[in-house]
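Researcher: For the annotation table, I need structure tokens for Transcription-repair coupling factor. Please keep the output clean. Sequence:
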Amino acid sequence: FADWNEATAGRNREAALLADFDRGFVVPGRKPLVVVTASDVLGSRAHHPQPMARSWSAAFDHADVPEQGTAVVHLQRGLALLDGLQTVATGGGSSREMIRLVFAGDDAVLVPPSDLALIWPYASERGELTLDKADGSTWWSRRTEAEHEIQIAGKQLAKHISQRRRRRAPKLVPPGPIYERFVARFPYFTTVDQAKAIRDVLDDLASGHPMDRIICGDVGFGKTEVALRATAAVVLSGKQVAIAVPTTVLARQHVATFRKRFAPFGIEVGSLSRIGSGAETREVKEGLKSGKLKVVVGTQALTSKDLKFAGLGLVVIDEEQHFGATEKAKLSGLAKSIHALWMSATPIPRTLAGGLAGFRDLSVIASPPIHRLPVVTKVAPLSDAAIASALLREQRRHGQSFLICPRIQDLDPMLARVQSVAPDLRIVCLHGKLPADDIDDRMMSFVEGAADVLLATNIVESGLDIPRANTIVVCWPEKFGLAQLHQLRGRVGRSGIRAFAHLLTDSDSERSEKRLAVLEEFNRPGAGFAISARDLDLRGAGDVLSERQSGHVQVFGPVLYSHLLKLASEKADDRTADLWVPDLNLPVGDMLPAGYVQSEAVRLEIYGRVARCRSEDELDDLEGETSRRFGRLPPAARDFFAAARLRIDCRRRGIIRLDVGRDAVAATFLPGRLRKSK
């Protein structure tokens, strides 16, 4: 039935109805109505379509498609600016749309849209980039050297992936009924991306090979639930789990969360950090060594040499971007030959590049919870009036605020400033140099509502969940990194109430303005990956196989670098030679009519996506999407997609040039691709 009233009209029979109920219920009456849902029968395997969920396009959906006005790298010519599209007459009353590239000395070159297969995003802004000459003479030596390094790195990456696939790990499949009871204690629907990430993790655990997966999900998007279910799967399979977090504050919150979920199943959760007493630490270590304790949450104390596990099956590293290289190496050592799950809202550039290149498996949670609203982000000059206005506004709506300063020595002067202009505000101070007990007491007093404002350093950056806190004021934001600012902003707006982030700066440098503008630009839920990608864009990836910072990565840009590295790792031979485009000389216009797709930026996007298609199936999907977006394809648009199909076929057959005339067709093949007739 399509309607509830129709389905319930006759209570003396069974009826089926498509409705997104999370669990069954009974409607009382003379003839009670019993409703059984898919979740009651299938548990976590039930699919929830979530018709109310908003769909946000992820920042990486078409990360390899260059945009107008950005710096790009043309594989045959070098660095240029993509100036836009330009229509040129081709004789006989016909015309073509070309891509206009600007090189050094303001030399412009027009290339066909199919050349977008050779054009990759380099940077969102030109900045201080030195463009190459249009003839490619300044480019080829740099490209050749960088390609050689990529081939070496690709072989190392292929070896790493091969070794990882050869290593064995226990196949961990939890008993169905008890695992489903654990899942049923999650009070929300999983989002589409969250459900996929959970499936990816469960598949990894059951594969018989060590999992090495990074979960990239924005703040408040449900990464912790993925970790909880992974932990449940491992513990219910008889193994132990260690969860590593960067701060004692986050450790305390995770311990409370994990204990609440595991307590009904008689599974204890231990804690290892500097806030624990000596006796508690000894008891936890003994429990892990004997196997009595199955789950432990800890800080760097988990890498202690005297810590022994009876049967460690999984290591979870939360907020991986806050761990240093040495700490990560120790945690990786702890996870050697067992399963490892890394989680981050804004992964550091090297981690992101490694995930894109295949160094680690990557799952992305880009869809926000249904109730999540974007945090209103404002950049303004720093002043006492601006601080007081933001804090008092939140107090008036009975909420709480964070007030963040970059240094400990900034806190006392800031406290005096705020008290002088807003004496009625109840303020508690917090920083990492306080005794552990004081940190806990002050944090809990804020959580329990005993204070209006938490004045702190970025100690509150990681993972805290305080639903009543819906305003954050960051003073001197130019002294924080982009990822730090995004994490701080993620402390508010977790309860479905409109939240505000005020970035108050006294810097007038152009660079600071651009960096803070990124936070304003990416203010929607799910912006963490976009900010990390922009950080990758601005800083470069470094070497994914070592701690070496940006070198040859800067030659190609991070997106093309990751692509070439992945190609090199999949085949030891020189795959960059495969990056060529068949040249088609056809009697039809190879373009989308401007009257059909009116936006130049959208036409450029479609040209780029078509150029990236490597199969007819991909092209069919894109053609179908285009017709849904803009209506039935006119003849010229059908010709455009037909030419794209022909180009894919030519590439498969090794045809580098195809000339189609009225009476004949001439094909030029790659050397060695045309068989000689006997």
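Researcher: And a one-line annotation?
Model: The first helix runs from residue 4 to 8.
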